[in-house]
Amino acid sequence: MSVEMTFETNSSGITLISLIGKLDALGAQKIDLQFSAIAKGHNKIIVNLEGVDYLASMGIRTLIMGAKVVEMKNGRIVLLNPNAEVERVLSESGVDTLISIYHGLEKAEAAVLA
Amino acid sequence: MIKVPAKLEKLLDINIWIDSVAKSLNLPNSTSFAIQLCCEEAFMNIVMHSYADASVDLKEEDKVVLLTIDKADSDITLTIQDNGLIFNPLGAEERERPKLLSEAKIGGLGISLMKKFSKKICYESKGVGNLLTFQF
Q1: What is the pTM of this model?
Q2: At residue A1, does pLDDT exceed 80?
Q3: B2-135 has which CATH code?
Q4: ipTM
Q5: How far is Cα A78 from Cα B127, in angstroms, rounded to an integer?
Q6: How confident is the model over A2-43, as pLDDT tens digits?
Q7: How many inter-chain contacts (A to B, CB under 8 Å) are there?
Q8: Burial of B51 per CB tally in 10 Å (0-12, 13-18, 19+)
Q9: Burial zone of A43 (CB within 10 Å; 0-12 exposed, 13-18 middle, 19+ buried)
């Protein structure tokens, strides 16, 4: 299964991007353009990784590129609820020091609104 | 064993094969995840570099990647073999971890992930092509 992406913006102006499936090279290729477009158009973004069961370097590339765009606009972007294996990929690659990871939607919302 | 053309879309076939081998060998999820990650990073290197150079004088049907997974006692071995340009990923310089998002370079993560998610990696070149052997 490749990756599926949906997004919605709530009344606080927070955009929740939900990813489900495998964020491998094929998954990254599938969502790259749309993910980048959402990053360009929104300033408070939570990327929900709860449904992502696999992440590789090409998927990290997608997340980093989106985060760079948001940061250049002084916006905020955080990652939410990665599973243990996906979180290990994020920490071993050092991404966790570049994009904050939260467990729990309330904490993630507070972080992007701060 | 699986032999696939070195094309990005073949990653799907490799993933299906790994899932089926992992089930038949009754591997824990963390091992199956690590195998998949190392396979993908090595395969993408081959797709993007080993066969991408115009100087690679091979017929299209010879631009393939051969993968095997074996289990002996508690050791799992993954091999990935290609016929492309000589490239030792273990000799490539590892990129320093960026401290700021603005300094983060895109790419270069694959090799450090392969090292982190396997117990041991060996590289061999036999004149033509490359052979990577991973232990898990």
Answers
A1: 0.94
A2: no
A3: 3.30.565.10
A4: 0.94
A5: 47
A6: 899 999 999 999 999 999 999 999 999 999 999 999 999 999
A7: 67
A8: buried
A9: middle
